[in-house]
Amino acid sequence: MSRRTNLAIRQLAERVSTDISFVRLPFVSRTSIVTRIAVAASLSLVLFSIGLLVSIRTDVERAIYAATDARVQVAQNMFLDLVRAKGRATLKDGTLRLGRWTANGDNSLVDHVRKLAGTDATLFAIIGGKPIRVTTTILKLDGSRNVHGTGWAGSRRL
């Protein structure tokens, strides 16, 4: 190579070295290669651990949701079977009857579901176009059953 080419290469190398010198941290150049590797390995391990924990959390949440959903489905199906076994549903003057059994105020069916499935149960009747509780295991703050005209619409009480 010519002397001129060598000079141009040297000048370019100095310019590149100057341009990237802001990336260099002063304390990094004073640490040994072993320390640098240990720090890089530690940071990698921390990032890997965070990723693993996020992944595990997602899997656990999915498993809990699936188990809860399965439990709700079993209880719901059991409740439906018990209601159907009582007989045909009729509603007259705000009184829900299943066969010869009057649901209003009789908590035996919902209590049986709670005993078997370990979940709350409520039987609604559509009165005036609104779902109204006629029997339930859900309690008010005073400990009484939450029935007699209380309803539910979506996620809020009527």
Annotation keywords:
158 residues; alpha+beta; two-stranded antiparallel sheet; disordered C terminus
Task: Give an overview in words.
With 158 residues, the protein is of the alpha+beta class. It has one domain. It has 4 helices and 7 strands; from the N terminus they run αααβββαββββ. A 3-stranded antiparallel beta sheet has the order 1-2-3. Strands 4-5 form a two-stranded antiparallel sheet. A two-stranded antiparallel sheet has the order 6-7. Helix 3 runs antiparallel to helix 4 (108-117). It is rod-shaped, with a radius of gyration of 35 Å.
Structure classification: alpha+beta
Number of strands: 7
Unreliable stretches: 153-158
Distance between the termini: 90 Å
How many helical elements?
4
- Tell me the helix content: 40-55%
Beta-strand residue fraction: 15-25%
- Gyration radius over CA: 35 Å
Mean pLDDT across residues: 81
Instruction: Give the domain tally.
Output: 1
Largest sheet: 3 strands, antiparallel
Shape verdict: rod-shaped
Strand order of the largest sheet: 1-2-3
> What is the helix/strand order?
HHHEEEHEEEE
Quick recap:
With 158 residues, the chain is α+β, with helices and mostly antiparallel strands.
Give the helix/strand layout.
Elements: H1 3-19, H2 26-29, H3 33-86, E1 89-92, E2 95-98, E3 101-102, H4 108-117, E4 122-127, E5 130-136, E6 152-153, E7 156-157
Antiparallel strand pairs: 1-2, 2-3, 4-5, 6-7
Helix pairs in contact: 3-4
